[in-house]
# Entry
Amino acid sequence: MILLNLLSVLVLLGSVCVVCVWGHGWREPLDCVRALELCNGDSQCSSSYRIMRQCLSGGARDRQTMLAGRECQGAIEVLQDSSLYDCRCKRAMKKELQCLQNYWSIHQGLTESGEDFYEMSPYELHEFSEEFRHASIISDSSLSKASPCSEPGKPCNPCLDAAKACNLNETCKRQRSNYIAICNKLSQPSLANQEPCSRKRCHKALRQFFERVQWELSYPLLFCSCSDQACAERRRQTIVPACSHQEKHRPSCLELRRACRSDALCRSRLADFHTNCQMTGHSITSCPHDNYHGCLMAYVGLIGSDVTPNYMDSSPSNSTISPWCSCRGTGNQENECDAFLRDFTHNTCLKNAIQAFGYGPEGSVLPVIESLATPFPPIQPPLNSKPAPSLHANEIKPQDSTCVFSTCANLKDGEQKCIPSNDFECEEALLAQGSKGEEGRAQHSAAAPGTLIVRECVSVCMSMLGLLLQAL
Amino acid sequence: ECSDLKPPCPYILPCLHLSVGLSVCLQESSSQTTKGAKSARRKRLKPCSLREVEVTVGELGLGYDSDETLLFRYCSGRCTARRRRNYDIALEHTRRAGLIKKGRRDKVQYSPCCRPIAYEKDISFLDNNSRYHTVQEVLARECGCA
# Structure
């Protein structure tokens, strides 16, 4: 009897997993440069696009009435069926700015007010970094309770070690010297009273540094873990805050956000930060999909934009992170302003991610272990707590979701529910099945909505596996 | 490594700088044993090239107090006799002939030196007082016999 049970579960597990992983073809989202090219090839689409651009061209108030008009609504309807609708951009791709401009030119019109508190990231989902994970596991097993300072006798400064590692690498040294020289260079004497440096050039050099230097070398400079003030001060100084972060005038955070949203790159990076570092109660790490690396990448993406964040003080363990803005005197908008600011200053996901990076094992392994002990929480809602509704309805396509949700519904009838997270396991399981080879892997890594589905699918497989183990 | 004036090496043979104030000429010796020892020494001295050593910025002696480590690149090695220009030969000859007078204020070198022919543009670092500095031409990028 038990054997029979076991067999049936095994068969079910096998079939679900196969159906989930290979049953439906997830497709890579088109990049928005290509999507516009395709749209321009179609007369109806291209004219709708032109109309849409006009609808959005006016000021904020005009825009509302314009968009409500019949012509604009018609254009929106056409565009929702076009390839432009779910196009995405890749970080550091060729023509990234153009891609982002294309993205916003349509998505600005699709959301009701054109500006939600949280906006969807125009970037594809960040991949889970296998190296990041492995590095932490390796250091965990070899040093057990590894602190970043293991050399006895020497004063411990992981941030100094990070600078050394960077200096010993040609690209890192050159790029670092470059942004430091630019950010630290005083402006012409005639302009001396205005700005201590050329902020614009400094920001550009910083973006270039984080784009061109491998994260294994650049992230330790920014996320090193410190036990004393000298170290924490070095960490705070990483982005040359006197030029890139601080200003004489401290604007209101809403003002800062408005400035950021008028720039396609800044707006995208901010949306990406909100998507990937959004605190969520549905995962142990409080990060979306327990993806620390995605959050750190999104955070780093903000450096060199109007909302460049940084450590506000040189406290070794309890430093506050914030962009250069405040919510004082924002009047009736104070709540909204605070909510915006708290996503930086009181963000558990971001804090955990930084800590996990600095200490290796501490944060990244622990939650996975814990998740086995805690009762399975209900299935996780997609990414944002407050997403653009029109976008999310389509994020999971009906034919895709049949697999996930019907299976989960069946499971819910029993005592077991679906496992929503355990993404690392899922990823692993998926890679292990990589008989489809390079093609399959490339598709999986690129597809944004697709990967989401696959993760859920694999989660279901894992939960079934849990069932199986319990039966044993 | 540059040859010193003393002892003057015979034409075409380079000078080997051993330590402060002591140089020997690399030449064929009558004795078999010294010949072996000297050619071994000559072999040990690599041709002029870029070398590197890990040091902290503070150890460079430029007056900066910083514990940041970097790779100090410098030029070292032998400049072969073949690299001697007519200039070196002429200089040596005129000097020997007494046409250029020896004197304390006059120092001439008639074999090429291994020196940087290109430097890295600049190097930036944070000092121990949390100030950034950018210094030019600290690191050699390319070496040559000049």
